[in-house]
Amino acid sequence: MRGRYWRQRLVFWVGALAIGLVSAGFAKLADEAQRVFAIIGEAQGPLRFTPLLVTPLGFVLCAFVAGRYVQGSQGSGIPQAIAARHLREDEERSRFLSLRIAAGKIVMTVVGLLCGASIGREGPTVQVGASIMLQAARWGGMVQARGLILAGSAAGIAAAFNTPLAGIVFAIEEMSRTYQARANGIVLSAVIIAGLASLAVVGNYTYFGFTSATAELRRDWLLILACGIVGGAAGAFFSSGMIALTRRIRRLKAGTPLGRSLAIALVAGLVVAVLGVASDGMTFGTGYAQARSAIEGTPLPPSFFITKFLASLASSISGIPGGLFAPSLSVGAGLGSTLGQLLGSPIGLAAVLGMAGYFSGVVQAPMTAFVIILEMTGNHDNVTALMAASVLGYGTARLISREPLYHALSRLFIADVLRIRRQQPTAGSAAAPGGA
Predict the structure, then answer these.
(1) CA gap 157, 167 in Å, rounded
(2) 323 has which bridge partners?
(3) Where in the sequence is the domain holding 12, given as residue range(s)?
(4) Which residue has the higher pLDDT, 228 or 16?
(5) Are residues 169 and 263 in the same domain?
(6) 201 close to 25: Cβ distance less than 8 angstroms
(7) How far apart (Å, rounded) are the C-alpha atoms in residues 431 and 125?
(8) Residue in 46, 37, 135 with CA at minimum distance from that of residue 93
(9) Looking at residue 106, what is its pLDDT?
(10) Which residues, including other chains, have CB under 8 Å from residue 248's CB and lie 6 or more apart?
(11) What is the full DSSP assignment across 235-267?
(12) Phi, psi for 323 (deg, rounded to 5)
């Protein structure tokens, strides 16, 4: 009995270690893909229009591979992990979480960044982490599937952003929407092991740099209100728009899913390419560089918020694998920078508060929003201001859209599984024709 216990624990620890190492490698590949595409984006003369060809074709390639060979890898990956936690059959969970899907998710996300898609690697890392941990559970004979999916998801976020606290809060607030002492002990150990593995590869760092600007209530109360309310409203419009468009696209694809999927990907890729060329390349990719520059005090053009918003929406509904964590944070930084310029506030502070308000509005998870931004920017002097902007963003978003984005999308995946389950004949019904 004791030998079986330690064998299961060893498999679990190896799984958490693998998540950290894979996440670090994924990050390096994603950064290299963006660096390569930046060379194309910085071209002058007629070559500056190259993305008008490369980006749409890249979207079509990603959509084709995802639709034909890696079903379940489309989009962020967080809704798939949430959906898998609600399914009881291992075969049904495997539609969203498997090593094959994890590998395809990594490759296709990197290809998407290589062609300029406005996507991130953080959401995909959640699906990758959950897939690795669930496979480790199968090898180790562990039966706590829901808790292990939760642990793998949290470890993926922690390793992707180098934010261990945010990984834990994300698991409790967004993935499970509840607190379970047993499950969260598993989450904690997975986050620690995956985080240490990631640190060993990439070192300790703050994801978006550091801002020394500190909020002062007398001076910045209006900025906090504006970032929270305006950011939350903008995030809710993004979220509700994405849910509505996703549902409409799913109905449109009924009957000829692959052909129409490729047409939608082509149109979405063309939109992203046009926005990218029009903005001199600023809206391509994750938006990491733009968000970091704003946090460090360099104002972003007011148009960046709108163009990045639209590019992220087009990328998210295109059907290609890729997340929206980093693009959403860069949109929030652009909004905050614009509000900071209007109100005469420090740009770095405004960018951070804009990120908190907007991101909280998109995912409707205020604790995750302020903890992840606090850890990513390294300034603990703004805890109260970040909490206020996040809560205001969440409250405003709830007035506009009652459906949290990831959970609304997860219900669509669950509906697909239930439909397939209903279409499969039972043992009794399969035998009936033969008996007749």
Answers:
(1) 5
(2) 120
(3) 2-202
(4) 228
(5) no
(6) yes
(7) 44
(8) 135
(9) 94
(10) none
(11) HHHHHHHHHHHHHHHHHHTSSSHHHHHHHHHHH
(12) -100, 175
8 Å CB contact between 141 and 5: no
Same domain, yes or no: 165 and 264: no
Distance CA 82, CA 142 (A): 19
102 and 198 share one domain? yes
Structural domain includes residue 428: no
Query: Same domain for 180 and 225?
Result: no
Residue 212 lies in a domain: no
Whole-number Å distance between alpha carbons of 68 and 258? 8
> In this predicted model, what pLDDT tens digit does every residue of 299-348 receive, in sequence order?
999 999 999 999 999 999 998 999 888 899 999 999 999 999 999 888 98
So what's the pLDDT on residue 427? Answer: 46
Residue 259 has a CB neighbour count (10 Å cut-off) of: 11
Is residue 6, in this structure, part of any structural domain at all? yes
Region of poorest pLDDT, from 164-173, 187-196, 288-297? 187-196
Question: The domain that contains 248 carries what CATH number?
Answer: 1.10.3080.10
Q: Exposed/middle/buried for 3, CB within 10 Å: 0-12, 13-18, 19+?
A: exposed
How far apart CA 366 and CA 386 sit, in angstroms, is 10
> Nearest Cα to 379, choosing from 129, 207, 180?
207
